[in-house]
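> tool_call: predict_assembly(chains=two)
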Amino acid sequence: MLRGAEITLQCMRAEDVDLVFGYPGGAIMPLYDALDGSGIKHILTRHEQGAVFAAEGVARATGKVGVAMATSGPGATNLVTGIADAKMDSVPLVCITGQVRSALIGTDAFQETDVFGLTLSLTKWSRLVKTIEEIPSVIAEGFHWARSGRPGPVVIDIPTDILKAKMEFVGPVKFASKANPSNGHAQPLFAKELIALLEKAKKPVALVGAGAKLAGAIADLRRLLDQLQVPTFATVHGLGAVPPSASYYLGMVGMHGTMAANMALDETDLLLVFGARLDDRVTGDPSRFSPNAKIVHFEIDPAQLDRVRPCELPIVGDLAETIPATHAVLREVPLPDWSQWRGVACGEERLGLEPRGLAVPTIRFLDELFSRLPENHVVLADVGQHQMWAAQRYRSCSPRGFITSGGLGSMGFALPAAIGVQLSKPDATVLCVSGDGGFQMNIQELATVHRLGLPIKLVIIDNKFLGMVRQWQQLFYQRNYAETDLSDNPDFVAISKAYKIHGQRISEDAMREFPISQETGNELDRFLRSPNPELLVFDTAPEANVFPMVPAGASLSEMLLEEE
Amino acid sequence: MHVFHIHYRNTQGTLMRIINAASRRALDLPYVKAEANANAHQATLLLEVTPKQIGQLRRDWYAIVDVTEVQVSVVDFETGVLVPHPPISTGNVAQSATA
């Protein structure tokens, strides 16, 4: 006879779970009691939001399902931001929450919340377990849905009496999926239409999102793009999918994308979308988005189609199947010569734009850091100006090398996520770039970093403002810096010392000379190569701004290149 | 007014997810009916929606794990007959569903 808690953990092990993040509490105590000897390592974070972001870090770095655990009531509600984050960015995540005992559900018992109800619109699938007998099937089905099709978050809420109950356990079960209407199978039935669209196109472009990475189709995608040789750009989650050295690559697209990418997207007459949902940060004003473009959309999730306008050719299915099928079809077809268009779109006039203004030292600082990273690295960016600077300057062909909260834009994401990344990639150099605002949202996880001795390299770009909001206030609200002033920030170096993590400051003056001094370079090398956790605070100009910028509601052609 | 018939497996929360796709868009729900229908269940919703919202709803519902089929009709108030109404992208999606 095994307890429900032991059965739950055995079923999780059967789903290849060996690492979970969490925070104990009353209703989930039976599960914690059964952890010892389960084969599952538990990482205690200092807040449930830290746990769920750390689990996301594992999932985003490896593609495996990340797992977070929390107790009922506030423990579960503290997971909600991470669950929403995983939904927006298609991250495979399973959250196990304890619930008050079955007899108390619905009585407003101590630490009772309707976790199932409050996460319903944020989850891909969820269950409130009603009997011990259904634990194996619920765990199996939950992990199946978290990782299958378009990955996403799953919540499994287990009342404490069911965790404590006992039954004869014959072993984990496998979930046999019924046909999912979301998932088609790739057959080159779309070939004729696609070829016709390509033959007519004068200015085709390719937009790469996270889909190819999630599908494990990066190599196939690169082969197809090499074949097409059309100007190509990436969303923030598509960074690393296309080698920056590719002659047709224009960098990041969207609100803070490169001028070349945004202009090409605005001018194109045929837009090939690979696993991107075309959200407002990519399209600008939807009514003026790529006004002349026909759209071919490679996508696993039909719910992401036609968000801006109907696409001419939706190619619905796993990109691991549809991209190779497309490559095979197009290999037999002579494609038009788009070299003239490519020359315009990828020309020096558009791509050669150098950064200007107060942001130059910060950009140079990031360039210096990124250029010193070993091949085996992961860069995490939190949310705000530093995130966009990092995304603009990141140059790597590592598909999972740049991790950030893109869809939900959750400040406080990067530090705990870096914990999950470093644990799942112990040999990688993990560089975590945060702003002074976001860093303080989960600053308590420095304790977790120290406890585990993780050699994460933490950077704070400290402008003593909520910088991105301040930038908008400057540009669109007549410099009314309402409640964005963080000039009374704590001393981050002293705080890191309190957490027993070495910290130091670097002034932006160190980045004004080019090339930077030998001394500064040595300091950056030491920081990145240290076997210990390190914090580096970079003091930057309070009014440095991120450019280019497409103002909210403007079209991509109306991007601002500098302050006017 | 459009009538939506959504066929689904009656698992925990599926009906709520179906309704939520409408309520998150602040659509009025003048008529909702859920009933057992042969081996599956069926929810019927009457909604005032734009053609673009029809496509969005249809795709949102298909993204729910246990939804098996979505049918859309327009109410012809003169005759009282439900006329099948393919949303803008139905043809394309149907064509590519096997792609």
